[in-house]
Design goal:
With 302 residues, the chain is an alpha/beta fold. It has ten helices and eight strands. An eight-stranded mixed sheet has the order 1-2-4-3-5-6-7-8, with helices on both faces. The protein starts with a helix and ends with a helix.
């Protein structure tokens, strides 16, 4: 009897120890993922718009709504209507990330503002919040662009790629004067896209690990990042919306675009690009990209 009880006690101790070790390991992995998202590696742009055939540009600086210093490139419109587009890049990126899109729009007379989000490129800030505080960057950038004498403030659209799409959606709920919204390869909510990553990379279920990662990011960002929910935010937007996504995107699955489209109000459009991965849809199908984006902007009121 004594030996049996001792064996049971040892077994219980071993099982408890194993549980604690596994739990601690998983929590550490969640913490590491939270850190990598909150503090991504970012480098300044390597080229200027001149490299992409745009000569009429200038370096500019302005402030986000909360005072963070942001840097970018302003390209005045050449069309007499003064239409312009504000470009918002993805996590760990910089203004150069959307240069090819800017080249297309510049060739069609649009003005543009390409800028580095906080904690990216040459802008200030020391933490990334996956769209929460970056929405304030978009608002500050919009105000700067609308104030330029060459720009018609009633004809400004916003283009957000990946995390920039989440920031753009969040900002658009506070920018009723914006003309239109284009979202490329973005997510429907932060917790759901992190959950997709957890499942794809580890085979573990999204819950509770995705929730733990988002929860751990909150104190780093100084915000409740469960509020990064473009699927909910987009229901408040009544301007035209174009959602674009690659069908083979293994970073942000195409289901996110489908959820955003389902939640969006009319007028709305969805373009799913066959065999395309994450972002850079203009590289995959440049003719299809132009055929979708340019008419969409032309049709938008303003």
């Amino acid at each position: 009897m004594w030996r049996k009880r001792r064996f049971l006690n040892l077994s219980l101790f071993a099982a408890t120890l194993l549980f604690l070790v596994v739990s601690a390991t998983l929590l550490w992995l969640c913490y590491q993922q939270a850190q990598s998202l909150a503090y991504p590696i970012s480098i300044p742009a390597q080229y200027t718009p001149t490299h992409f055939g745009i000569s009429n540009w200038r370096e500019v600086s302005f402030q986000a709504e909360d005072g963070i210093q942001l840097n970018g490139w302003f390209i005045p419109p050449t069309d007499e209507r003064g239409a312009a587009v504000l470009f918002v890049h993805g996590i760990g990126g910089n203004r150069e990330q959307v240069s090819l899109q800017a080249q297309l729009l510049a060739a069609n007379g649009y003005g543009m503002l390409l800028f580095d989000l906080r904690d990216c490129g040459t802008s200030s800030g020391n933490v990334t919040s996956m769209g929460y505080w970056e929405a304030l960057d978009v608002q500050g950038a919009f105000a700067f662009l609308a104030a330029q004498p060459e720009v018609n403030p009633q004809r400004i659209g916003i283009y957000g790629a990946s995390m920039g799409g989440a920031a753009a959606v969040r900002a658009m709920t506070r920018l009723p004067e914006a003309r239109a919204l284009i979202i490329e390869s973005s997510y429907s909510s932060l917790v759901s896209v992190i959950g997709d990553g957890v499942r794809a990379q580890t085979g573990l279920p999204p819950f509770p690990f995705a929730d733990i990662i988002v929860w751990l990011m909150g104190p780093e960002a100084g915000a409740n990042l469960f509020d990064v929910n473009p699927e909910a935010d987009i229901t408040q937007i009544h301007q035209p919306v174009l959602i674009m996504h690659g069908t083979e995107d293994d970073t942000i699955p195409v289901a996110h675009a489908e959820r955003l489209y389902a939640a969006a109000n009319e007028p709305k459009e969805l373009w799913l690009v066959p065999n395309a991965g994450h972002g850079g849809l203009i590289y995959i199908d440049p003719q299809g990209f132009a055929a979708r984006v340019l008419p969409f902007l032309e049709r938008a009121p303003g």
